[in-house]
């Protein structure tokens, strides 16, 4: 977006130094923590701030309130400014029950990534509750699995709790474009809205599920999960082998005897 000035809150501003050098005339980086009310106030309490985007998240699936506290702190500051503003929050399509993937709904969401999704769900509820009877409107964007790839700008949307049918893989650049649409596009920037986002475009990327699981799961729990998965694989392999053996015995009950006799005659 040309001409738009951006203020960013970062715990480690040095990680954004490439952006700072490229967009120094429009980008201001504020050192701080979104879970600290005073740092958020320093970011937002500016007469020129009119929109706020919250794209917080955590890496490990441990009890956390990072996103929830970030939302609460931001909305508290925005309400004190007492002017019309818009807040855009990124969560996850996992908050919508899929009804088509039992493993994801009952294992991944409830046990493997439960703390991450609980925090996102509380953040959504806090946003809805805190913006009631205020001058703040909001948009919640729920993307599926994020991947690093060029933007496709080929997205499908559903609102509320309706899930679009897509590939369940969306690029980070595409999500960024949706966030901007929720602020600047008249089709998306009015009222309180919840957008579930996906794409039908096949992306040329490979998702390493084991690598993702390792990156978000505490190591002891990760080892336990891998051991369980190995046990399941071994059990399946044993059952397949046993089934083939029994099938062979049923179909060819005297096959081994004939083979032995044949080999004995042709020594």
From TrEMBL:
<keyword id="KW-0472">Membrane</keyword>
<keyword id="KW-1133">Transmembrane helix</keyword>
<dbReference type="InterPro" id="IPR016040">
    <property type="entry name" value="NAD(P)-bd_dom"/>
</dbReference>
<keyword id="KW-0812">Transmembrane</keyword>
<dbReference type="InterPro" id="IPR036291">
    <property type="entry name" value="NAD(P)-bd_dom_sf"/>
</dbReference>
<protein>
    <submittedName>
        <fullName>Predicted protein</fullName>
    </submittedName>
</protein>
<feature type="transmembrane region" description="Helical">
    <location>
        <begin position="223"/>
        <end position="245"/>
    </location>
</feature>
<feature type="domain" description="NAD(P)-binding">
    <location>
        <begin position="3"/>
        <end position="185"/>
    </location>
</feature>
<dbReference type="Pfam" id="PF13460">
    <property type="entry name" value="NAD_binding_10"/>
</dbReference>
């Amino acid at each position: 977006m040309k001409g738009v000035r951006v203020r960013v809150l970062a715990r480690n501003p040095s990680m954004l130094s490439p952006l700072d050098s490229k967009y120094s005339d429009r980008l201001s980086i504020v050192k701080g923590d979104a879970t600290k009310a005073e740092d958020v106030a320093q970011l937002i309490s500016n007469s020129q701030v009119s929109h706020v985007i919250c794209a917080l998240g955590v890496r490990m699936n441990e009890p956390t309130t990072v996103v929830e506290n970030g939302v609460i702190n931001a909305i508290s500051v925005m309400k004190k400014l007492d002017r019309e503003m818009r807040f855009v929050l990124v969560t996850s399509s996992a908050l919508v029950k899929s009804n088509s993937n039992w493993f994801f709904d009952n294992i991944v969401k409830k046990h493997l990534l439960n703390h991450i999704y609980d925090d996102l769900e509380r953040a959504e509820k806090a946003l809805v509750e805190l913006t009631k009877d205020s001058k703040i409107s909001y948009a919640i964007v729920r993307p599926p699995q994020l991947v690093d790839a060029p933007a496709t700008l080929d997205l499908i949307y559903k609102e509320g709790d309706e899930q679009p049918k897509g590939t369940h893989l969306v690029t980070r650049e595409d999500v960024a474009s949706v966030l901007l649409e929720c602020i600047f596009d008249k089709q998306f920037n009015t009222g309180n809205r919840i957008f579930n986002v996906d794409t039908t475009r096949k992306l040329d990327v490979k998702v390493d599920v084991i690598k993702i699981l390792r990156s978000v799961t505490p190591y002891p729990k990760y080892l336990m999960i891998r051991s369980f998965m190995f046990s399941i694989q071994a059990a399946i392999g044993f059952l397949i082998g046993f089934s083939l053996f029994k099938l062979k015995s049923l179909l060819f009950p005297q096959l081994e005897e004939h083979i032995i006799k044949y080999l004995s005659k042709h020594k």
